[in-house]
Amino acid sequence: MDLKVTIGGWVVGFLVGITGMGGGLIMTPLMIFVFGVSPSIAVGTDLVYSSITKLFGAMQHWRQQTIRFSIVKLLALGSVPGALLGVSILDALRRVFSANDFQHIISDGLGITYLGLTGWMVWNMVRKRNAENDVSIRAAYARDPGRQKRHTVLLGFVGGMLVGLTSVGSGTVFMAALLVMYPLPAAQLVGTDILQAVIVTGTAGLAHAAIGNVNIHMVLQLLLGSIPGILMGSRISKKIPDAAIRFCILMLLMGTSMQMLGVL
Question: Which compartments is it annotated to reside in (predicted)?
Protein backbone atom coordinates (compact mmCIF):
# COMPACT_ATOMS: atom_id res chain seq x y z
CA MET A 1 0.00 0.00 0.00
CA ASP A 2 1.25 3.49 -0.93
CA LEU A 3 0.90 5.65 2.20
CA LYS A 4 1.15 8.94 0.28
CA VAL A 5 -1.95 8.01 -1.74
CA THR A 6 -3.93 7.39 1.46
CA ILE A 7 -2.69 10.65 3.00
CA GLY A 8 -3.64 12.51 -0.17
CA GLY A 9 -7.12 10.99 0.09
CA TRP A 10 -7.48 12.18 3.70
CA VAL A 11 -6.47 15.76 2.87
CA VAL A 12 -8.88 16.02 -0.06
CA GLY A 13 -11.71 14.37 1.88
CA PHE A 14 -11.23 16.80 4.77
CA LEU A 15 -11.35 19.83 2.45
CA VAL A 16 -14.49 18.57 0.71
CA GLY A 17 -16.20 17.98 4.06
CA ILE A 18 -15.55 21.55 5.17
CA THR A 19 -16.22 23.48 1.98
CA GLY A 20 -18.18 21.18 -0.33
CA MET A 21 -15.62 21.88 -3.05
CA GLY A 22 -12.05 21.19 -4.04
CA GLY A 23 -12.16 17.41 -4.55
CA GLY A 24 -11.51 17.15 -8.27
CA LEU A 25 -9.55 20.40 -8.30
CA ILE A 26 -6.94 18.85 -6.03
CA MET A 27 -7.20 15.10 -6.57
CA THR A 28 -6.99 14.98 -10.36
CA PRO A 29 -3.74 17.00 -10.62
CA LEU A 30 -2.43 15.16 -7.55
CA MET A 31 -2.86 11.84 -9.34
CA ILE A 32 -1.29 13.17 -12.54
CA PHE A 33 1.72 15.06 -11.14
CA VAL A 34 2.44 13.20 -7.87
CA PHE A 35 1.16 9.66 -8.44
CA GLY A 36 2.06 9.51 -12.15
CA VAL A 37 -1.41 8.52 -13.44
CA SER A 38 -2.40 9.32 -17.04
CA PRO A 39 -4.95 12.17 -17.39
CA SER A 40 -7.78 9.94 -18.68
CA ILE A 41 -7.37 7.39 -15.85
CA ALA A 42 -7.05 10.24 -13.32
CA VAL A 43 -10.41 11.67 -14.41
CA GLY A 44 -12.27 8.35 -14.14
CA THR A 45 -10.56 7.25 -10.92
CA ASP A 46 -11.24 10.60 -9.26
CA LEU A 47 -14.94 10.38 -10.11
CA VAL A 48 -15.40 6.91 -8.60
CA TYR A 49 -13.35 7.79 -5.51
CA SER A 50 -15.16 11.11 -5.14
CA SER A 51 -18.65 9.63 -5.36
CA ILE A 52 -17.94 7.10 -2.59
CA THR A 53 -16.17 9.66 -0.41
CA LYS A 54 -18.95 12.22 -0.75
CA LEU A 55 -21.56 9.60 0.08
CA PHE A 56 -20.14 9.44 3.61
CA GLY A 57 -20.08 13.23 3.77
CA ALA A 58 -23.72 13.37 2.60
CA MET A 59 -24.70 10.89 5.33
CA GLN A 60 -23.11 13.14 7.95
CA HIS A 61 -24.91 16.21 6.59
CA TRP A 62 -28.18 14.25 6.49
CA ARG A 63 -27.78 13.47 10.20
CA GLN A 64 -27.11 17.18 10.79
CA GLN A 65 -30.21 18.09 8.73
CA THR A 66 -28.15 20.38 6.49
CA ILE A 67 -29.44 19.17 3.10
CA ARG A 68 -32.16 20.74 0.92
CA PHE A 69 -33.51 17.76 -0.99
CA SER A 70 -35.75 19.88 -3.23
CA ILE A 71 -32.67 21.62 -4.66
CA VAL A 72 -30.81 18.30 -5.02
CA LYS A 73 -33.71 16.92 -7.09
CA LEU A 74 -33.67 19.90 -9.47
CA LEU A 75 -29.90 19.73 -9.91
CA ALA A 76 -30.01 15.97 -10.56
CA LEU A 77 -32.60 16.44 -13.32
CA GLY A 78 -29.91 18.28 -15.27
CA SER A 79 -26.66 16.84 -13.94
CA VAL A 80 -27.31 13.15 -14.68
CA PRO A 81 -27.92 13.59 -18.45
CA GLY A 82 -25.19 16.25 -18.54
CA ALA A 83 -22.63 13.89 -16.99
CA LEU A 84 -23.53 11.09 -19.41
CA LEU A 85 -23.19 13.48 -22.34
CA GLY A 86 -19.76 14.63 -21.10
CA VAL A 87 -18.44 11.06 -20.84
CA SER A 88 -19.89 10.24 -24.27
CA ILE A 89 -18.03 13.19 -25.80
CA LEU A 90 -14.81 12.03 -24.13
CA ASP A 91 -15.27 8.48 -25.41
CA ALA A 92 -15.91 9.80 -28.94
CA LEU A 93 -12.65 11.78 -28.81
CA ARG A 94 -10.76 8.67 -27.67
CA ARG A 95 -12.01 6.77 -30.70
CA VAL A 96 -11.00 9.53 -33.14
CA PHE A 97 -7.52 10.44 -31.85
CA SER A 98 -4.42 8.38 -31.08
CA ALA A 99 -3.70 7.49 -27.44
CA ASN A 100 -0.96 10.13 -27.15
CA ASP A 101 -3.04 12.87 -28.78
CA PHE A 102 -6.03 11.90 -26.64
CA GLN A 103 -4.02 12.35 -23.43
CA HIS A 104 -2.78 15.74 -24.64
CA ILE A 105 -6.35 16.79 -25.40
CA ILE A 106 -7.46 15.83 -21.90
CA SER A 107 -4.46 17.57 -20.33
CA ASP A 108 -5.10 20.78 -22.28
CA GLY A 109 -8.81 20.53 -21.55
CA LEU A 110 -8.12 20.23 -17.83
CA GLY A 111 -5.77 23.22 -17.98
CA ILE A 112 -8.37 25.39 -19.72
CA THR A 113 -11.06 24.22 -17.31
CA TYR A 114 -8.89 25.04 -14.30
CA LEU A 115 -8.17 28.51 -15.70
CA GLY A 116 -11.88 29.08 -16.19
CA LEU A 117 -12.66 27.92 -12.66
CA THR A 118 -9.89 30.15 -11.31
CA GLY A 119 -11.59 33.12 -12.93
CA TRP A 120 -14.94 31.93 -11.60
CA MET A 121 -13.62 31.71 -8.05
CA VAL A 122 -11.95 35.13 -8.24
CA TRP A 123 -15.18 36.63 -9.56
CA ASN A 124 -17.10 34.94 -6.75
CA MET A 125 -14.73 36.39 -4.13
CA VAL A 126 -15.09 39.87 -5.60
CA ARG A 127 -18.86 39.49 -5.95
CA LYS A 128 -19.22 38.76 -2.23
CA ARG A 129 -18.10 42.31 -1.52
CA ASN A 130 -21.17 43.62 -3.27
CA ALA A 131 -24.18 41.83 -1.80
CA GLU A 132 -26.70 44.14 -3.50
CA ASN A 133 -26.44 42.20 -6.75
CA ASP A 134 -27.16 38.92 -4.96
CA VAL A 135 -30.19 40.48 -3.26
CA SER A 136 -31.60 41.65 -6.60
CA ILE A 137 -31.12 38.20 -8.15
CA ARG A 138 -32.81 36.47 -5.23
CA ALA A 139 -35.66 39.01 -5.32
CA ALA A 140 -36.20 38.22 -9.01
CA TYR A 141 -36.32 34.50 -8.21
CA ALA A 142 -38.78 35.16 -5.36
CA ARG A 143 -41.10 36.84 -7.87
CA ASP A 144 -40.71 33.97 -10.36
CA PRO A 145 -40.00 30.62 -8.60
CA GLY A 146 -40.41 28.76 -11.90
CA ARG A 147 -37.45 30.66 -13.33
CA GLN A 148 -35.33 29.69 -10.35
CA LYS A 149 -36.21 26.03 -10.86
CA ARG A 150 -35.40 26.16 -14.58
CA HIS A 151 -32.05 27.83 -13.90
CA THR A 152 -31.25 25.22 -11.24
CA VAL A 153 -31.87 22.39 -13.71
CA LEU A 154 -29.76 24.21 -16.33
CA LEU A 155 -26.98 24.66 -13.77
CA GLY A 156 -27.13 20.92 -13.11
CA PHE A 157 -26.82 20.09 -16.81
CA VAL A 158 -23.85 22.39 -17.48
CA GLY A 159 -22.09 21.35 -14.28
CA GLY A 160 -22.78 17.67 -14.94
CA MET A 161 -21.31 17.84 -18.44
CA LEU A 162 -18.20 19.54 -17.03
CA VAL A 163 -17.86 16.78 -14.43
CA GLY A 164 -18.21 14.06 -17.05
CA LEU A 165 -15.50 15.65 -19.21
CA THR A 166 -12.97 16.67 -16.56
CA SER A 167 -14.06 15.26 -13.13
CA VAL A 168 -14.03 18.81 -11.71
CA GLY A 169 -16.82 21.26 -11.10
CA SER A 170 -19.12 19.21 -8.86
CA GLY A 171 -18.21 21.45 -5.92
CA THR A 172 -16.77 24.68 -7.30
CA VAL A 173 -19.32 25.49 -10.00
CA PHE A 174 -22.38 24.35 -8.07
CA MET A 175 -21.37 26.02 -4.80
CA ALA A 176 -20.57 29.37 -6.42
CA ALA A 177 -23.90 29.43 -8.25
CA LEU A 178 -25.96 28.18 -5.31
CA LEU A 179 -24.54 30.95 -3.14
CA VAL A 180 -26.12 33.47 -5.52
CA MET A 181 -29.37 31.60 -6.20
CA TYR A 182 -30.40 30.49 -2.71
CA PRO A 183 -30.25 32.50 0.54
CA LEU A 184 -29.37 29.54 2.74
CA PRO A 185 -26.91 29.03 5.61
CA ALA A 186 -23.47 27.96 4.40
CA ALA A 187 -23.71 24.54 6.07
CA GLN A 188 -26.96 23.79 4.19
CA LEU A 189 -25.40 24.82 0.89
CA VAL A 190 -22.42 22.55 1.55
CA GLY A 191 -24.62 19.61 2.51
CA THR A 192 -26.87 20.11 -0.53
CA ASP A 193 -23.88 20.38 -2.83
CA ILE A 194 -22.23 17.24 -1.44
CA LEU A 195 -25.36 15.13 -1.93
CA GLN A 196 -25.88 16.29 -5.51
CA ALA A 197 -22.17 15.62 -6.11
CA VAL A 198 -22.70 12.00 -5.03
CA ILE A 199 -25.28 11.66 -7.78
CA VAL A 200 -23.37 13.39 -10.58
CA THR A 201 -19.93 11.93 -9.83
CA GLY A 202 -21.43 8.48 -9.32
CA THR A 203 -23.15 8.65 -12.70
CA ALA A 204 -20.05 9.91 -14.48
CA GLY A 205 -17.78 7.49 -12.59
CA LEU A 206 -19.81 4.46 -13.65
CA ALA A 207 -19.74 5.67 -17.24
CA HIS A 208 -15.94 6.10 -17.09
CA ALA A 209 -15.57 2.64 -15.54
CA ALA A 210 -17.54 1.21 -18.47
CA ILE A 211 -14.93 2.56 -20.92
CA GLY A 212 -11.92 1.47 -18.81
CA ASN A 213 -10.89 4.81 -17.30
CA VAL A 214 -10.78 3.74 -13.63
CA ASN A 215 -7.94 2.37 -11.47
CA ILE A 216 -9.86 0.43 -8.79
CA HIS A 217 -6.74 -0.33 -6.70
CA MET A 218 -6.00 3.38 -6.36
CA VAL A 219 -9.63 4.12 -5.55
CA LEU A 220 -9.44 1.74 -2.57
CA GLN A 221 -6.21 3.32 -1.29
CA LEU A 222 -7.66 6.83 -1.58
CA LEU A 223 -10.81 5.80 0.28
CA LEU A 224 -8.80 4.60 3.28
CA GLY A 225 -7.89 8.23 3.89
CA SER A 226 -10.77 10.16 2.35
CA ILE A 227 -13.64 8.56 4.29
CA PRO A 228 -12.37 9.55 7.76
CA GLY A 229 -11.23 12.87 6.27
CA ILE A 230 -14.64 13.87 4.92
CA LEU A 231 -16.43 12.69 8.06
CA MET A 232 -14.16 14.87 10.16
CA GLY A 233 -14.49 17.85 7.80
CA SER A 234 -18.30 17.54 7.59
CA ARG A 235 -18.59 17.36 11.36
CA ILE A 236 -16.82 20.67 11.88
CA SER A 237 -18.10 22.43 8.75
CA LYS A 238 -20.31 24.70 10.87
CA LYS A 239 -17.39 25.93 12.97
CA ILE A 240 -14.45 26.63 10.64
CA PRO A 241 -14.38 29.60 8.21
CA ASP A 242 -13.41 28.36 4.76
CA ALA A 243 -11.98 31.57 3.24
CA ALA A 244 -8.34 30.54 3.80
CA ILE A 245 -8.97 27.04 2.44
CA ARG A 246 -10.64 28.44 -0.68
CA PHE A 247 -7.72 30.78 -1.22
CA CYS A 248 -5.27 27.86 -1.03
CA ILE A 249 -7.39 25.91 -3.52
CA LEU A 250 -7.40 28.94 -5.81
CA MET A 251 -3.61 29.18 -5.76
CA LEU A 252 -3.24 25.44 -6.37
CA LEU A 253 -5.75 25.64 -9.19
CA MET A 254 -3.92 28.48 -10.90
CA GLY A 255 -0.56 26.72 -10.68
CA THR A 256 -2.00 23.44 -11.93
CA SER A 257 -3.63 25.09 -14.95
CA MET A 258 -0.30 26.64 -15.88
CA GLN A 259 1.42 23.23 -15.63
CA MET A 260 -1.28 21.50 -17.66
CA LEU A 261 -0.94 24.05 -20.44
CA GLY A 262 2.87 23.89 -20.38
CA VAL A 263 3.32 27.48 -19.17
CA LEU A 264 5.29 26.44 -16.07
Answer: Cell membrane; Membrane
Q: Mean pLDDT lowest for which of 30-39, 159-168, 176-185, 255-264?
A: 255-264
What is the model's pLDDT at position 195? 92
CA atoms within 13 A on the CB side of 216: 4
Cα diameter, the chain: 56
**pTM passes above 0.90:** no
Show me where the domains of the chain are located.
Answer: 3-260
pLDDT score of 104: 79
Q: How confident is the model at residue 230 (pLDDT cuts 50, 70, 90)?
A: confident
